[in-house]
Amino acid sequence: MDTNQVFLQKKLNSGIKLFNENKIEEAEQCFRYLQSEKKTQLIAFFYLGIIKIKKNKTNEAKQYFFKILEINHNHEMASLNLGLVYFQEKNIKNSKKYLLNTLKINSENSLAKYHLALINLFDKEYSKAEKLFKEILLKEPKNINALNNLGICYSKQINFEKAIRIFNECLVIRNNHQQSILNLANCLFQIKNYEESIRNYNKVLELEENHTIAKIGLSKCYFALHDYNKAFYFYEARKKRQFDKLKIIDDLIKKFNCKEWFEEKLDDKTILILSEQGIGDNLQFARYIYWLKERFNCNIIFYINKKISYLFKNCPCKIIDNFSEVGKIDFYQHLLTLPYIYYKIESKFKKCIPFIPVDNKNNLNWKKKLEKLKKPLIAIQWKGNEKFVDDQQRSIPIKYFSDLIKNRNYSFISLQKDNFSSEIKINNLQEYITDLSEQIDLGDRSFFDTVSILNNIDLLISVDTSMTHLASTMQIKTLLLLNSNPDWRWHVELKEKCFYDNLEIIKTNRTNDWIAISSIIKDKLRGLLKN
Prior knowledge:
It contains 26 helices and 11 strands. By secondary structure, the protein is an alpha/beta fold. It has 3 domains: 235 residues, Serine Threonine Protein Phosphatase 5, Tetratricopeptide repeat (Alpha Horseshoe), CATH 1.25.40.10; 105 residues, 3-Layer(aba) Sandwich (Rossmann fold); 169 residues, 3-Layer(aba) Sandwich (Rossmann fold), CATH 3.40.50.2000. The strands form 2 sheets. The chain has a 6-stranded parallel β-sheet, sandwiched between helices. It has a 5-stranded parallel β-sheet with strand order 1-5-2-3-4, sandwiched between helices. Helix 18 links the parallel strand 3 and strand 4. Helix 9 packs antiparallel against helix 10. The radius of gyration is 29 Å and the shape is globular.
């Protein structure tokens, strides 16, 4: 070995030693020198890329890994780290590209398999994710992260019993593994073992006392058990997840020195109510704005998205979508906390108030368009937002409505948007159902045409979406289709019959048993449409 080689080897060893001792700046200087030498170039590029990741300079890191692949396109670790960096940046397409390339170079690379499995999990390709997690576990049976995610695959495929066994296996490996305890609690909730679910959510809180998801999980259990005071108490944790609202509140407190309202006197005060969560939540609970006005001589400001704000113009409040015209605020509160405060005072829930505005001109326009369809006229909404975390337990494939839709005693219209109408063609139903997806709500006001259509139908059949709340608030006959363990509000409604007078619920006895529910609908229609 010549003198130069000896020097370079010493320099390289020194750089690696400094890196391992976390002396990042000094290590970087070593590798910057070594990158200009052909014999040490590749390893210098690699360490410089890792150093840039440590410094959170991912764009610079990627450039070093690209340089490596230009020299050696089969460099496993450069390809892997590109996949991991893109994964961190949520650039799933590129992450997948480099992870697959890594596995092409080395089919046993467990980190590449693991992250590729996570991508499949996020993309709802559960069988692919399951296969990869199982491959990892064959080599590493105590890989608790792979095992935990395998359990998630089973839960997403509605195999809760199998998922529960997997999460219990995780807890044998590590009895305080927080994510496994949380996932176990979630699955126990799904099979209606509420007491055990509560016990496990409380275990999570013993490990992390302010764990938001565990608290929300507890609220769901207590709603299902009809312990509403505890349910609402834990449901307050949802506020911690609404980061956009937290920023707004912080700015409001600084600007107006306002306080969060609970039960203080509001006479001659101004209170800001913040809309939250989905459109359906705001439609359902806007009724409590009326209660505030009835109880107090106060000024109410309701902050809500501009596209749906017109729906609330009849509410006794000032509607805003920004704070430029607000001069004074004494108190603020989230909309979904109002039923909690109301329940603490009244020990009941407030009945529905129909407040959706009527546009007579648009109603007449749609009446003429729909006149050609035979009565009774039924609108159907079979899918919700696919991004919803448990949409696979809420939306119903249209194939389960096929026999019903083909019944010539009724006329059916679809109110689906977002390309879901393609399912009509896939199931050869275009002859039997009128698809309005390309004609409705094309302007800047959400539901503008939908409201008028609802005013001209005899019945809405819908899964748990904002459409249900819109129609029910309008007092349109609505048949709501629910899975065996639905969202918390429907546990309340099934027992208390307090939210909507014109709503009838059909609930499955088993998860996703939509075949059973389709036959029940036929019997219900006779009674609902007898007049």
